[in-house]
Amino acid sequence: MVVRGPWIYGGVLNRAQRPTLHNQPKDLSAGVMRESFAHAVSLLYSYAPRIIPAALTTLDDKTQVAITFDDGPDPQSTLRVLEVLAELNLKASFFLLGEKAERNPTLTQAIVRDGHSVGIHGFQHRSLFFSTTQFIENQLQISMDILRAASGTTPRFFRPPYGKWNPMMNRVLVRNGLSLVLWSCMPRDYALKQMSGSIVDFFNAQLFGGEILVLHEIAGSNERMENILVQLERALVTKRLRAVTLDEGIETRQQ
Q1: How many structural domains compose the chain?
Q2: Confidence band of 10 (pLDDT split at 50, 70, 90)
Q3: Which residues on neighbouring strands pair with residue 216, listed in sequence order?
């Protein structure tokens, strides 16, 4: 049976019944030592994602690359990202936070209207590594209802915050029709001191085809993101690769 919190009625989110942190199902993520351990495991997943058989980390079609964005939608960055993607004729997938999507429904609509995919990145950007399955399921269902209402589409993909994944999530994802998606390529665009030259070198060295690339929506970083996307588009053209949404990449994989 799918576990639903008291704030969801018939699949429709009731804002008046929205949980606050103190009345959500009890989360077990407490303690510095456990968080440190979870972070260490997350790093292992990040650097060696192919050891996780349950997660999608690459595409089968080696002429394709999936560009993904985490942490949006953001009123300071999303629209500009969409403009640059349109200018460069690139398609992408956006892993959105339910909390932000609820505050910015028009941005979620704009993402889908421009032909991109949306997935779930959690309700809030907090690790779910030590959370109970009930807590995870409630977070996913809240976010799914918000994204469905805003976009008119049902999300198919989930990427946990920080990439912190544990095997217990699999049952929850299956019950909710979601696929776990991590990544195989991350240029660490959130590193503020990273120079454009290193981005060029990264794409030249790391893009061969089939990668799932993760970028981040960061407020106040539009100029940096524009440069990253321009350099990415050049690398794709040089390597004769095509940017696709995860929906298209998965369809190709299943054929």
Answers
A1: 1
A2: very low
A3: 70
Q: 122, 128 in Cβ contact below 8 A?
A: yes
3-class SS of residue 171: helix
At what angle are helices 133-151 and 105-113 packed, to 10 degrees? 70
Please tell me what DSSP assigns to residue 75: T
Q: How many residues does the chain have?
A: 255
Query: Which tens digits make up the pLDDT trace of 97-107?
Result: 999 999 999 99
pLDDT at 155: 96
Strand bridging mode 12-13 / 8-9: antiparallel
Provide the pLDDT for residue 246: 96
Range of the domain at 65: 31-254
Q: Quick one: pLDDT at residue 53?
A: 52
Question: What is the end-to-end Cα distance of the chain in Å, rounded?
Answer: 31
Q: Which residues are catalytic?
A: 70, 216
- The chain-wide mean pLDDT, for the chain, equals 81
Q: Does residue 19 lie in a domain region? A: no
User: Can you give the CATH number for the domain in which 191 is found?
Assistant: 3.20.20.370
b/e 63-72 (16+ beta carbons within 10 angstroms → b): ebbbbbbbbb
